[in-house]
Amino acid sequence: MRTVEIPLKENAYKVFVGSENVSQLFDYASKQNLNKNVFAVIDKNVFKLHKTKLQNVFSKFKGKFNFIIVEPSESDKSFVTLQNIFTGLLKNNYTRDTLLIAIGGGIIGDITGFAASIFARGVQYVQIPTTLLAAVDSSVGGKTGINFNDTKNIIGSFYQPKFVLIDSVFFNTLPEEEIICGIGEIVKYAYLTDDSFFSFVKNNLAKFRELDKSILERVILSSIKFKANVVVEDEKETNLRKILNLGHTFAHAIEVEQKHKIKHGEAVIIGIACSLFLSNTLSLLNDEKLAELLSLLIDFNRLISIDEYNKNSIYKNMFRDKKNSGNVVKFVLLKDIGKILIDVEAEKEQVIYSIENGIGLFTKTYV
Ligand SMILES: NC(=O)c1ccc[n+]([C@@H]2O[C@H](COP(=O)([O-])OP(=O)(O)OC[C@H]3O[C@@H](n4cnc5c(N)ncnc54)[C@H](O)[C@@H]3O)[C@@H](O)[C@H]2O)c1
């Protein structure tokens, strides 16, 4: 078992990375005096697939324990689900002395974290990410939230968990497309970190897909450490943390335009391609560099596809992104691996060109 520290000044916590370590959930909790009244929010599919294991874990807890099963869809990342959680809590007389436990992917983690941040003016929570994407990204850093009126994550808070427990055993039941989504966020770190991590990711894509244990552990640890350094520097995303949004301005707009038929991690891969084309159009990357950087994404065109899209709708959706200020869309772009620019503005024609070329890599007609 490995541990990564997230040394935030006021809310420092640990991420435990291992295999078969979910059985120690309540040991970790008791070491931090978190064994209060426990309420778990569990992804419906995870509960179905890992019921016996989870019930064994829960049976070890001697205090008050209840749970709710939540449907893991973007349309359920909503006020309705939040209300269901609060109803479950109140029906069972939970008050401020509550520990919420999120067991699921990014959707469950984001909703539960938000619920924890506002229930009884804030209760403690822990994250047990069961998707690769949630393990390498969403479970760490304290961004919580729900979608509202077709706008992703627009209602939310910054609220850090007390610890994160990553048990790779959960990944064994992930459908292939969810593994690809996790790799999407790993690919993002490849562009943000350095040449050596970029090469490591590029050379090991097949091993990630096969869920090779040691390679996966290495990439999870590296991704979390990278994110931890950024979050510690800029917890509330006033500046540096914006780099973690590479590809996301495009990705969120594409997800909404595709009515969530395309998954977040897949949209991130396409969004990064669009960002690289925009970097090229704005002369930040020359053609040769563009080709070199796109080489990491090309293989995904066999795994992800968009058949029809409306470029103007995607462009319009970008203005709803909460990261914008005023009526201007701001992008995270690259000059090279690890050389990142934030808050870059672009003309509509340049953005549309980038949407066409970025998405173009993932259409069936691409050869
Ligand atoms: N808070 C953040 O910093 C942050 C960062 C990135 C993404 N996000 C959010 O995370 C969400 C995406 O998260 P995600 O990709 O984990 O998706 P998800 O939570 O939708 O889970 C994807 C699918 O995998 C299933 N699943 C989960 N664990 C499984 C397992 N072990 N075995 C089999 N199936 C399993 C779920 O039931 C679901 O169908 C988006 O809503 C995105 O906005 C948040």
Describe the structure using short key phrases.
alpha/beta; binds nicotinamide-adenine-dinucleotide; Dehydroquinate synthase-like, alpha domain; about 375 residues; about 20% strand
What report would you give on this structure?
- There is one protein chain.
- With 367 residues, the chain is an alpha/beta fold.
- The chain has two domains: 2-173, Rossmann fold (3-Layer(aba) Sandwich), CATH 3.40.50; 176-210 and 235-360, Dehydroquinate synthase-like - alpha domain (Dehydroquinate synthase-like, alpha domain).
- The chain is 46% helix and 19% strand.
- It contains 15 helices and eleven strands.
- A four-stranded parallel β-sheet has the order 4-3-5-6. It has a three-stranded mixed β-sheet with strand order 1-2-9, sandwiched between helices.
- Helix 6 (132-138) runs parallel beside helix 10 (213-233), helix 7 runs antiparallel to helix 8 (195-203) and helix 7 runs parallel beside helix 12.
- The chain is globular, with a radius of gyration of 20 Å.
- The chain starts with a strand and ends in a 7-residue tail after the last helix.
- 46% of the residues are buried.
- The structure holds nicotinamide-adenine-dinucleotide.
- Nicotinamide-adenine-dinucleotide binds at residues 43, 45-46, 49, 72, 74, 77, 104-108, 110, 130-131, 133-134, 137-138, 141, 143, 152-153, 170, 173-174, 178, 181, 264-265.
Major sheet attributes:
4 strands, parallel
- Classify the beta-strand content into a percent band: 15-25%
Chain-averaged pLDDT = 95
Secondary-structure-derived class: alpha/beta
| Total DSSP helices | 15
What is the CATH class designation of the largest domain? Answer: Alpha Beta
